[in-house]
Inverse folding.
């Protein structure tokens, strides 16, 4: 990502490159081509005029091309999660699953949408173009679920483990962990500092400033967690 | 919750109401109001974003502005992970966050999910 006038930390640009590369390769449930199509659809959703949260784009005449590379339910999830994350409920999730998307496939979709939101909102903040997407890498999704996957505390399946619930959320799609972890460490703070060093700082923002930004962003997204 | 804990660590009194909007003061955080205005401008993507970005850069320096953008970007990711997966509040933070949830009416959100 080029940033005229801004000197970006190398770990920050490297983290964003990790995301771009991760999107381009096959995951457990989506191909590299499909994952890049998800990111492209996120960008289309973000650029579109505002629509009511409950209006599924696949039901709007002419909004989603007939030859779209993703299933209609995936497009609807992408738009809802990109534009209206604060409106998601258990009933909505159940409805999505009832439309035929497997829970682990849904979960990987969430991971790609969430990481795409991060990279592209950073670009927006600095008035940069969203980074150009790489060519997809070949290969089929592995279709491998980790051992011990079950539905427990979250809507989605997880692998029982200790740690904050939000870190547990992606445990059933371990291929997504490196992308999320790398972004979080470069953009926010090292995981060890989360609870163990409440005065941690890179030397720019102090920890209170960091947490105020985090909390205000969460509030704007109407995120309870 | 981490805002309050970081304030305790720093020996500062944090006012959580600042989380509700830039018009609610700085929350006891240095440049807090300007930082929340920046977050709001990023979120809405409107015409005020360049102005707020320039003001923050002038006030705090470009490295701080970039890091503020990065933290904001990170929580556009984390909120979507939490709300896309139905992540419930952690047991350990239910009691600690009670005052904050009351003050900001967080329990009324569609995404409110307590454990259990």
């Amino acid at each position: 990502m080029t940033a005229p006038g801004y000197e970006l930390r190398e770990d920050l640009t490297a983290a964003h490159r990790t995301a771009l590369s991760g999107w381009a390769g096959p995951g457990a449930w989506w191909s590299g081509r499909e994952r890049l199509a998800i990111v492209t659809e996120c960008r289309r959703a973000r650029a579109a005029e505002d629509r009511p949260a409950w209006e599924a784009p696949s039901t709007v005449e002419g909004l989603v091309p007939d030859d779209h590379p993703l299933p209609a339910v995936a497009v609807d999830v992408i738009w809802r999660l990109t534009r209206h994350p604060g409106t998601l409920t258990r009933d909505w999730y159940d409805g999505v699953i009832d439309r035929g998307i497997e829970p682990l496939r849904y979960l990987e979709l969430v991971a790609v949408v969430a990481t795409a939101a991060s990279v592209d909102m950073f670009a927006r903040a600095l008035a940069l173009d969203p980074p150009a997407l790489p060519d997809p890498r070949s290969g089929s999704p592995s279709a491998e679920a980790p051992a011990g996957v079950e539905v427990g505390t979250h809507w989605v399946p997880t692998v029982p483990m200790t740690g904050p619930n939000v870190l547990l959320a992606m445990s059933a799609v371990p291929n997504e962990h490196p992308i999320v972890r790398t972004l979080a460490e470069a953009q926010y703070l090292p995981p060890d500092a989360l609870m163990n060093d409440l005065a941690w700082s890179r030397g720019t923002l102090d920890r209170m400033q960091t947490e105020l930004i985090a909390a205000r962003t969460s509030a704007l997204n109407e995120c309870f967690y | 919750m981490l805002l309050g804990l970081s304030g305790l660590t720093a020996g500062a009194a944090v006012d959580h109401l600042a989380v509700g909007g830039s018009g609610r003061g700085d929350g006891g955080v240095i440049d807090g109001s300007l930082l929340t205005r920046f977050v709001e401008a990023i979120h809405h993507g409107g015409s005020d974003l360049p102005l707020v970005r320039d003001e923050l850069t002038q006030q705090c320096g470009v490295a701080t502005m970039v890091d503020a953008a990065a933290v904001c970007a990170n929580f556009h990711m984390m909120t979507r992970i939490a709300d896309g997966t139905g992540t419930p509040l952690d047991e350990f933070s239910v009691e600690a966050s009670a005052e904050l949830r009351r003050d900001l009416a967080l329990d009324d959100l569609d995404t409110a999910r307590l454990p259990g």
